[in-house]
Backbone:
């Protein structure tokens, strides 16, 4: 599959971000190309043009020409393109059409009207080549994020397209999930397929990449070949607004050396257990979280990190042990008042029709002044009349933080705050977390983002 | 335990709908519940089928023996309510059995064989697909509401009606829109718009057992119609 | 790509499926408490009209094509049939959805007044069962009255379908539907359009 972009420009009908200006790009068969750049630079737009979602699905006008093996892309219908181009998206939760894994893997083949016998042959081949033995005939809703993404990949793989388009596939995955994804990518590279992948997390791709296209404000700013990219220093990459190209593990810091800790400055878990018998999720946890400190909770998928977060928020009653705040035992009801969680998908917690109204929602009396101050601190004041849903991911997150400040919450929890954030926004997020800590809040963050942990965490609590 | 084609199950439901449309509620309803119970047990769904039959029995007992002892408005409303329940019971019970013994992909494949238009098949499939996601989303949203101190109690609602209303509608509709968009993008790029007839990896065929079960239901239906038309019931 | 303005493409169909489920949930949550209590059974249509207004308004803004509402009707009708709901409600719903689609479509789904009327018509659907009961109640409840006298029988027949119950049901549903529809229109202006989800 040879790709040729000639003088391509594009803008979305309703927004400026993500537009492309005069793109000229050639990709040859078998190349593994990484599209990198900060949020809104246009890398996702390039993938959408290649799979036909632009302009068909997203609207907008394209200028210039895009050729796939010499044929104009706009001459293809969506289902004709589906034979040539396979797309894998960011969100594992919303990519699958079926409820069970087997049907999902054969979805593309069924759409194409392939005869039943052939479908089953391909199905057996795919499950063997991608090592999906343990995922056959399962309920997709019961899989982990990484397993879901693997099924999504298998579904595309089954149609054997020549070009793979992958849009930030690691955004919602943990470390294990990313490793499984890497294996799939190695497989298709070894088959000589053309791969175009848009990503923020670069480290797991470093060994696979043939060329890096660095985009800025819709233009191709730089093209870097694979070897040069692999030898670039982390500082040079950060300067370009990009994340590290190397595997990295944050070093554990010892908070006990820092300062005098007294009982009334902590949230303590003493022998905390959740669940009974076989359904025991958390077992005999003992840990102290300190005011003014950021504690990062790590651990593989399924070890109970979400359960811990929800328990500290007061949604789950403990089966054994205590939770103690400021020297006194605290009940789930009281925890609900004192704790706040910034969820992985912030859309679940935005309720109002403007940023300002979101801050004053549920508060008593005249809190507009306070809201103004809080919004200013979080760089959101200029957006105060905007609808929360029109903000970017990072801005929505800061709005949730603003709400927690307005409600005078003492304990603020974060669930994977940096999924899908580019380097600049990841650093911003780290800065705001430090600001929050300086106000004396107890900050608990569930994350597997090592760069982020290195930036702002005071302590690492591993739930092994 | 036997298995029958999803299309047979559909035909059985249609026969049952015809039955409840044409035949007045009475002893024939009991007969219908009996053959439905028989089918449920044959298909392997024993526990839940028997519970449904038992519930029917209890309601029938109440209708025939207990109801005449009650009087006044309680009698009237119970009369109406039971009338509605009995009209719907045969279909409902059969539907429960069908849904509990058929996979969605099986069902969709069967619809495709009958050339049911995709403008019906796709939305139906999506409804089943989206249901667990909707439950998950709602769980997160109600957690978020609790953390904000927004509650669904009548007292809170009377003090802050607009807050509760917006909290109820906005997040769910925003996440529903996003989910619909992402689902569509993923389906379209895998060729869902292909006009060619959809196939399936499952082999769906009519067999001998389908014929036998169909015959049983049709025979019962014909028999009841004849008795009714002949004035015996 | 598919630019046909009136036909429904895959994206429209998937949005229809998602919203069909939201409509179903709204009807069940609103009307459920009524249907399960014997004295309030007849008022199920009132309950099912309470929550769906905003969902309706958003849906016709997202997919302003007549086929979409008709498909909601067809899908809910099929689902109702498959789960054993009474045919009066299923087909009543289908017919009302088609009429609602035609009404709202007259002004290309852009007139608030026509959209509101369309929603009122949409809410009439579930009343189908009760209309069938009203006109055909002998076949539904005779077998339970065999023990009484002829007079008692006639009296019961008229009590169970007294005009006052039917009128309360119809008027109540239309009033609640109007309020829910107006709420929907308001939320459209205030929230949905600003949020960018009405496109």
Residues:
């Amino acid at each position: 599959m040879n790709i040729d972009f000639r003088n391509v420009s594009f803008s979305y009908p309703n927004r400026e971000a993500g537009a492309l200006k005069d793109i000229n790009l050639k990709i040859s068969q078998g190349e593994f190309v990484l599209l990198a750049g900060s949020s809104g630079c246009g890398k996702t737009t390039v993938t959408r043009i290649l799979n036909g979602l632009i302009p068909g699905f997203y609207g907008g006008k394209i200028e210039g020409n895009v050729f796939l093996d010499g044929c104009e892309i706009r001459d293809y219908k969506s289902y004709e393109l589906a034979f040539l181009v396979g797309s894998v998206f960011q969100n594992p939760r919303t990519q699958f059409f079926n409820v069970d894994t087997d049907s999902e893997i054969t979805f593309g083949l069924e759409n194409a009207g392939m005869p039943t016998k052939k479908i089953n042959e391909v199905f057996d081949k795919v499950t063997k080549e991608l090592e999906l033995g343990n995922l056959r005939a399962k309920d997709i809703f019961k899989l982990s994020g990484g397993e879901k993404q693997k099924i999504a990949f298998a579904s595309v793989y089954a149609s054997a397209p020549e070009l793979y388009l992958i849009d930030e596939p690691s955004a919602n995955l943990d470390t294990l999930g990313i490793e499984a994804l890497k294996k799939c990518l190695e497989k298709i590279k070894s088959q000589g397929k053309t791969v175009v992948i848009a990503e923020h997390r670069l480290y797991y791709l470093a060994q696979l990449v043939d060329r890096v296209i660095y985009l800025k404000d819709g233009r191709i700013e730089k093209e870097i070949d694979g070897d040069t990219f692999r030898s670039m220093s982390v500082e040079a990459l950060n300067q370009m607004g990009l994340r590290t190209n190397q595997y990295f593990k944050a070093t554990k810091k010892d908070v006990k050396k820092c300062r005098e800790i007294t009982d009334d400055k902590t949230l303590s878990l003493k022998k905390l257990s959740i669940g009974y018998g076989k359904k025991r999720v958390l077992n005999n946890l003992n840990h102290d979280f300190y005011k003014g400190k950021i504690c990062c909770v790590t651990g593989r998928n399924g070890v109970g990190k979400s359960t811990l977060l929800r328990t500290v928020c007061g949604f789950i009653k403990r089966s054994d042990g205590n939770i103690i705040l400021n020297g006194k035992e605290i009940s789930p009801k009281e925890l609900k008042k004192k704790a706040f969680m910034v969820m992985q998908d912030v859309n679940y917690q935005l309720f109002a029709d403007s940023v300002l109204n979101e801050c004053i929602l549920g508060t008593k009396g005249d809190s507009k002044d306070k809201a103004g101050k809080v919004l200013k601190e979080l760089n959101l004041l200029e957006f105060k009349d905007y609808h929360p849903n029109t903000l970017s991911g990072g801005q929505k997150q800061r709005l949730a933080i603003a709400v927690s400040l307005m409600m005078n919450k003492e304990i603020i929890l974060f669930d994977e705050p940096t999924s899908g954030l580019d380097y600049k926004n990841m650093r911003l997020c780290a800065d705001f977390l430090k600001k929050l800590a300086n106000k004396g809040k107890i900050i608990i963050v569930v994350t597997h983002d090592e760069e982020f942990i290195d930036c702002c965490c005071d302590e690492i609590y591993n739930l092994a | 335990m036997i298995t029958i084609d999803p299309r047979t199950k559909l035909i059985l439901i249609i026969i049952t709908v015809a039955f409840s449309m044409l035949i007045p509620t009475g002893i024939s309803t009991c007969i219908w519940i009996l053959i439905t119970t028989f089918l449920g047990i044959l298909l392997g769904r024993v526990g839940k089928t028997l519970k449904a039959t038992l519930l029917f029995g209890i309601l029938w007992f109440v209708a025939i023996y207990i109801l005449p002892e009650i009087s006044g408005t309680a009698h009237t409303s119970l009369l109406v309510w039971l009338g509605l329940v009995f009209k719907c019971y045969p279909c409902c019970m059969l539907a429960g059995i069908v849904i509990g013994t058929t996979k969605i992909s099986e069902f969709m494949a069967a619809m495709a064989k009958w050339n049911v238009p995709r403008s019906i098949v796709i939305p139906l499939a999506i409804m089943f697909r989206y249901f667990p996601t909707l439950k998950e989303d709602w769980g997160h949203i109600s957690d978020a509401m609790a953390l904000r101190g927004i509650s669904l109690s009548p007292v809170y609602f009377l003090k802050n009606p607009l807050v509760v209303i917006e909290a109820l509608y906005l997040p769910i509709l925003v996440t529903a829109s996003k989910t619909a968009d992402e689902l569509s993008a993923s389906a379209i790029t895998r060729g869902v718009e292909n006009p060619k007839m959809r196939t399936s990896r499952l082999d769906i065929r009519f067999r001998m057992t389908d014929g036998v079960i169909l015959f049983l239901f049709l025979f019962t239906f014909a028999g009841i119609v004849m008795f009714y038309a002949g004035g015996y019931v | 790509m598919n630019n046909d303005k009136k036909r429904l493409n895959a994206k429209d169909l998937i949005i229809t499926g998602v919203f069909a489920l939201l409509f179903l949930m709204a009807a069940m949550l609103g009307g459920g408490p009524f249907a399960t209590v014997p004295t309030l059974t007849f008022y199920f249509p009132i309950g099912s009209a309470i929550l769906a207004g905003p969902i309706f308004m958003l849906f016709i803004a997202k997919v302003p094509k007549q086929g979409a509402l008709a498909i909601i009707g067809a899908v809910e009708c099929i689902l109702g049939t498959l789960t054993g709901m009474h045919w009066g409600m299923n087909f009543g719903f289908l017919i009302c959805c088609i009429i609602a689609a035609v009404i709202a479509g007259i002004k290309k789904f852009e007139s608030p007044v026509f959209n509101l009327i369309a929603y009122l018509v949409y809410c009439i659907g579930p009343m189908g069962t009760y209309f069938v009961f009203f006109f055909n109640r002998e076949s539904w409840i005779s077998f339970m009255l065999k023990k009484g006298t002829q007079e008692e029988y006639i009296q019961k027949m008229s009590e169970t379908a007294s005009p006052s119950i039917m009128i309360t049901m119809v008027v109540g549903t239309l009033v609640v539907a109007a309020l829910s529809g107006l709420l929907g229109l308001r939320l459209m202006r205030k929230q949905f359009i600003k949020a960018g989800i009405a496109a």
Chain A touches chain B through 67 residues (CB under 8 Å). The first helix of chain A runs from residue 43 to 50. The domain at 266-462 of chain A is CATH 3.40.50.300 (Rossmann fold).
